[in-house]
């Protein structure tokens, strides 16, 4: 099951949208299929992947980690070295190039934690497209560093004030905008979910990760026993797994956010959690965390990128079939993985990716030394200082923040720099 059958992955997927969105989705599907077999488009895509994103990203042998854990060889796909710091740029650039080819001048996107908004804003800046990012008002307040980055890239950030004022409301608002402006506007969806053709399209743009890994693993003659990736909506994992799905091995392991425990509202475990069920939301059928009335339940995770209430339909289907195995890592295990790989490999995992790292730490010692496991480090952890510092160095971080506030309120240098910025 490498791609959908008319938008469906077994019983999951589909295109459950209002009538007004049918035509833009159908047009998008046709344009996408044509583009992917057009050598000019592929050339343009590969050139920008190389020169702007910085592909291909390295596959690192984690030698010290391997020795310390005493089992299978651990390899880390350093996807976090991609420009803007994570895999999300692969999809943003792909979709923006496609939009340009379709003659669209305006891009909209939804964002929760802000990572997809930043990637889309950067891609639009690079490609000269107008960009509006819908973001819940609550998230705008919580995620100021990402809001600032989006604005620096020239995007307009639209604070959504409906509903719970978070990600799901931003998705609804973006869909409404698209339905009203389909001729001028393309909606860049941020993960391998939503109505068809998004799950297929996002997977294809992300599968560059898996293709590079497959080529490199063959070149180095690795005997790969398992591939491990974290799963939010599912874009980094499905892109990492894609070229291996039809093979019998390696094991493909998806790691969801175990949060602080198994209770409802304490995690984002969509494949096996207590409140996990089949449902339809945001235009597609999949596994969601829902209450008995079919409403989205609150989720919890230390990593902002893994706390969406649904999972991509292809992963849901592959999970049910057993080709992809699902497990989860708790907040604490992810934090420990951040420390472990920073200290022993000089690699700082994003909190999301650290969930995959945590599973590697558990799995490696159970496998023989001549086997390899490959972990996808979907992003780097620089963005997470506001999450990791309050945990690892609470007192120091508090006094740093107090000092920063004082400095901002009094410092003449910052004031002068601002005036200089305005005069440009
Ligand atoms: C957004 C994000 C994720 C989760 O999204 P997927 O679509 O599941 O890949 C994982 N890692 C990082 C670094 C992210 O920014």
TrEMBL record:
One of its GO terms (molecular function) is tryptophan synthase activity. Its EC number is 4.2.1.20. The modification N6-(pyridoxal phosphate)lysine is found at residue 88. It comes from the Bacteria. Residues 54-379 form the Tryptophan synthase beta chain-like PALP domain. InterPro entries: Trp_synth_b_CS, Trp_synth_beta, Trp_synth_beta/beta-like, TrpB-like_PALP, TrpB-like_PALP_sf. Keywords: Amino-acid biosynthesis, Aromatic amino acid biosynthesis, Lyase, Pyridoxal phosphate, Tryptophan biosynthesis. It catalyses: (1S,2R)-1-C-(indol-3-yl)glycerol 3-phosphate + L-serine = D-glyceraldehyde 3-phosphate + L-tryptophan + H2O. Pathway: Amino-acid biosynthesis; L-tryptophan biosynthesis; L-tryptophan from chorismate: step 5/5. The keyword Amino-acid biosynthesis applies. Tetramer of two alpha and two beta chains. NCBIfam families: trpB. HAMAP family: Trp_synth_beta. PANTHER family: TRYPTOPHAN SYNTHASE, TRYPTOPHAN SYNTHASE-RELATED. Belongs to the TrpB family. The beta subunit is responsible for the synthesis of L-tryptophan from indole and L-serine. This is Tryptophan synthase beta chain. The lineage of its organism: Bacteria, Pseudomonadati, Spirochaetota, Spirochaetia, Spirochaetales.
């Amino acid at each position: 099951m490498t791609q959908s059958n008319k938008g469906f992955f077994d019983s999951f997927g589909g295109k459950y949208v209002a009538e007004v969105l049918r035509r833009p989705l159908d047009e998008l599907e046709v344009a996408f299929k044509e583009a992917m077999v057009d050598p000019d488009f592929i050339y343009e895509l590969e050139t920008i992947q190389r020169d702007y994103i910085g592909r291909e990203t390295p596959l690192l042998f984690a030698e010290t980690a391997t020795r310390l854990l005493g089992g299978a060889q651990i390899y880390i796909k350093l996807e976090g070295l991609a420009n803007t710091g994570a895999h999300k740029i692969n999809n943003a650039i792909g979709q923006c190039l496609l939009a340009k080819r379709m003659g669209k001048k305006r891009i909209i996107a939804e964002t929760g934690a802000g990572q997809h908004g930043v990637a889309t804003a950067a891609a639009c800046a690079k490609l000269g497209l107008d960009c509006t990012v819908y973001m819940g008002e609550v998230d705008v307040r919580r995620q100021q560093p990402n809001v600032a980055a989006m604005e620096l890239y020239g995007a307009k950030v639209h604070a959504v004030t409906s509903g719970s004022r978070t990600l799901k409301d931003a998705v609804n608002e973006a869909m409404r905008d698209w339905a009203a402006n389909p001729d001028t506007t393309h909606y860049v969806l941020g993960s391998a979910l939503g109505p068809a053709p998004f799950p297929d399209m996002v997977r294809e743009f992300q599968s560059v990760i898996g293709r590079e890994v497959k080529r490199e693993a063959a070149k180095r003659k690795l005997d790969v026993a398992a591939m491990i990736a974290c799963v939010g909506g599912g874009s980094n994992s499905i892109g990492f797994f894609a070229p291996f799905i039809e093979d019998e091995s390696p094991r493909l392991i998806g790691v969801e956010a175990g949060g602080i425990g198994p209770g409802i509202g304490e995690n984002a475990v969509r494949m096996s959690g207590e409140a996990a069920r089949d449902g339809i939301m945001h235009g597609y059928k999949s596994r969601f965390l829902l209450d008995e009335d079919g409403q989205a339940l609150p989720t919890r995770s230390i990593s902002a990128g893994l706390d969406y209430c649904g999972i991509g339909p292809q992963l849901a289907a592959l999970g049910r079939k057993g080709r992809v195995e699902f497990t989860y890592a708790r907040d604490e295990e992810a934090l420990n993985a951040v420390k472990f790989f920073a200290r022993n490999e000089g690699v700082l995992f994003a909190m999301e990716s650290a969930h995959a790292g945590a599973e590697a730490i558990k799995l490696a010692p159970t496998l023989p030394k001549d086997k390899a496991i490959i972990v996808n480090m979907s992003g780097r952890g620089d963005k997470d200082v506001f999450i990791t510092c309050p945990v690892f160095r609470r007192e120091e971080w508090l006094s740093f923040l107090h000092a920063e506030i004082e400095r901002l309120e009094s410092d003449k240098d910052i004031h002068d720099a601002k005036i200089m910025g305005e005069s440009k």
